[in-house]
Amino acid sequence: MDGFEVCRRLKSNATTMHVPVIFITAKNEIKDEELGFAVGASDFIHKPISAPIVAARVRTHLKIKFMQDYLRSENAKLLANASEKSAELQQLRDFMWGSDQLPSVDRDYIQTIY
Hints:
Elements: H1 3-12, E1 22-25, H2 30-38, E2 43-46, H3 51-97, H4 107-113
Parallel strand pairs: 1-2
């Protein structure tokens, strides 16, 4: 199994799909780099490597991952809150108008008011 297949499997698994994958390789062909990104790589570093550059890229991808995790978490909270508020509004609507139908609107009457 090569790195491309490992990356494919990581990205197809719900538990690991958000883990950043950085390829460090001696392959210098554009087709290899394109394939790496196509299977889900976050970055592609060619050998020979520079330790400070690799460390900087790892830090960058970790920051991006933590921000994405935070945004996913906040989005889930917002969706839960929106569902809760929708249910509350439905209960209020049912209380005020009955659960079977909304009141009919006399558009002519509304136009005379305004």
